[in-house]
Design brief:
Layout (H helix, E strand, L loop, with lengths): L15 H24 L4 H8 L3 H4 L1 H12 L1 H11 L1 H21 L3 H19 L2 H8 L5 H27 L5 H5 L1 H15 L12 H22 L4 H24 L13 H31 L4 H8 L1 H17 L4 H20 L7 H28 L6 H29 L3 H23 L10 H4 L6
Helix pairs in contact: 1-7, 1-8, 1-9, 1-11, 4-7, 4-12, 5-6, 5-19, 6-7, 6-11, 8-9, 8-19, 9-16, 9-18, 12-13, 12-19, 14-18, 14-19, 14-20, 16-17, 16-18, 17-18, 17-20, 18-19, 19-20
Length: 471
């Protein structure tokens, strides 16, 4: 870990001591947003009981946060060029912290949902530019290690969220889950004001039309996925999906004509970036499918309790926390596309092993299969993120960061929704959805194999052909 903060005379980025504080800011901001997502899930029964609402309405406490966050990731990534990443990140922390205080004080569902929507906006502002801030504060030679640290933080958040929520709920009421964010957010805000570097802002306008079309496209998509996962009427899901496709078509047309596009389509002229985005989306579809399908498999078909099920999932994020930093460091020395592909092969092997798990399998027999999935995902994610961030000019790292976060969220949501569709089909649905996850991962391996020859030394990238960006 100390290697991340070593400084050489020819390094870009921040000096070691300043880099350490800036990294702490990004880590705390990311952890708050990720832990909040997973921690609130286990509090839904308590929220429904205390607010005297149905379980279906309580689910919106989680869904609204996720939809607002996902729909505005691209918007904030582009906005950061206009206001600077420092200002946007600080604003995101302020909104998220104040909204957390409001949620803790909420005495009705309407106020709670309003605060959750504001939390989603604050989380989107920080998560959309988190990877690009790593590129801003770390020297290029340590970019892979930085992406490994980023993957470790996200995995730690997902792993600790349910446990932390359960511990707090064992001696306090659910509002304290939100109140916990207030002192942590204030600490992160104080450090951010001190440590995040200033940078030049882009002159020019903002693509408001593109922002509205992007938000409409993503909001309709996630509402459709949420509806499919909860077995909403088919015509409602189809209508939302058609609205998303129309908004997406209009958005792409707008991006070709806009003077300051929300998503510069020139990013996709670089094959390394385009292939990394496709591979990322497919891998997260597979992970999203597995997470939900395995919950039903363990509890409904294998008879494990909810607590046992939580423990059965633990090796997945824990092995990511081990593998991602190691894979990130290796990606700074070896072909990241090759490392990422090897990780996908391990992930596919683990998913196939889980799909073939016998009905009477014991806990140990399941744990090694889950750990294999986490090991593969850890070795895939950090090198793949390095490919995305290093294959575009620094001036476009904000857009690449927003696209990375949006792709991850879309992939996971699509995977969750597909499990809902399969469950509606009846018998054998859980195993079928697991095999579909294997198929998505196998397709990711096939796409990833195509990019191995496109090693950075073999072909000049957009970053190498373009002049240095403003930061």
């Amino acid at each position: 870990m100390s290697r991340l903060f070593e400084t050489r005379p020819d390094d870009d980025g921040l000096p070691g001591r300043e880099r350490r504080i800036a990294v702490l800011v990004v880590v705390v901001g990311t952890l708050m947003a990720v832990i909040d997502t997973t921690m609130i899930n286990i509090a839904l029964p308590s929220i429904a009981r205390d607010l005297e609402i149905s379980a279906a309405r309580a689910v919106w406490v989680v869904s609204l946060f996720q939809i607002v966050c996902a729909a505005t990731l691209l918007l904030f990534a582009s906005l950061s060029e206009l206001v600077s990443r420092r200002r946007l990140y600080i604003a995101g922390l302020v909104v998220f912290t104040l909204a957390s205080l409001g949620a803790a004080l909420a005495n009705g569902l309407e106020m709670l949902l309003m605060c959750r929507a504001l939390q989603g906006l604050g989380a989107a502002a920080t998560l959309s530019i988190g990877p690009s801030i790593y590129r801003l504060i770390f020297p290029t030679r340590l970019l892979g290690a930085a992406m490994g640290l980023s993957a470790l933080v996200v995995a730690a958040g997902y792993a600790s969220g349910p446990t932390l929520g359960g511990v707090i709920l064992s001696f306090a009421d659910w509002p304290w889950l939100f109140a916990l964010n207030v002192p942590v957010g204030l600490l992160a805000l104080a450090l951010a004001v001190r440590a995040l570097p200033a940078e030049p802002r882009r002159r020019g306008g903002f693509d408001i039309t593109g922002a509205l079309l992007s938000a409409a496209m993503l909001a309709c998509f996630f509402l459709a996925m949420d509806g499919a996962g909860h077995q909403a009427p088919w015509w409602e899901v189809l209508g939302l999906m058609l609205a998303s496709l129309v908004a997406g078509w209009l958005f792409l047309r707008r991006q070709r004509r806009a003077s300051h596009p929300l998503l510069p389509l020139s990013l996709f002229d670089e094959p390394r970036f385009s292939l990394a985005i496709v591979v990322s989306g497919l891998a997260f579809v597979g992970q999203g499918l597995a997470f939900v399908a395995l919950s039903f498999l363990y509890q409904q078909e294998m008879g494990f309790s909810p607590l046992q099920t939580a423990w059965l999932f633990t090796p997945w994020p824990l092995t990511i926390m081990f593998a991602a930093p190691l894979a990130g460091r290796l990606a700074d020395r070896f072909n990241p596309a090759l490392l990422s592909t090897l990780g996908l092969v391990l992930l596919l092997s683990g998913l196939v092993a889980l799909a073939l798990v016998p009905d009477g399998a014991g806990i140990v027999n399941i744990l090694w299969r889950t750990a294999l999935c986490g090991l593969g995902f850890g070795f895939f994610q950090a090198p793949n993120n390095r490919e995305m961030m290093s294959s575009v000019p620094k001036a476009r790292s904000n857009n690449a960061s927003g696209m990375m976060s949006t792709t991850r969220t879309i992939g996971q949501s699509l995977g969750v929704a597909l499990v809902g569709v399969f469950l509606a089909l009846g018998a054998g649905s859980v195993q079928a959805s697991l095999w579909l996850g294997c198929g998505a991962c196998a397709l990711a391996v096939a796409v990833s194999l195509r990019r191995i020859p496109l090693a950075p030394a073999a072909k000049p990238t957009l970053a190498e052909r373009a002049s240095p960006g403003p930061d």
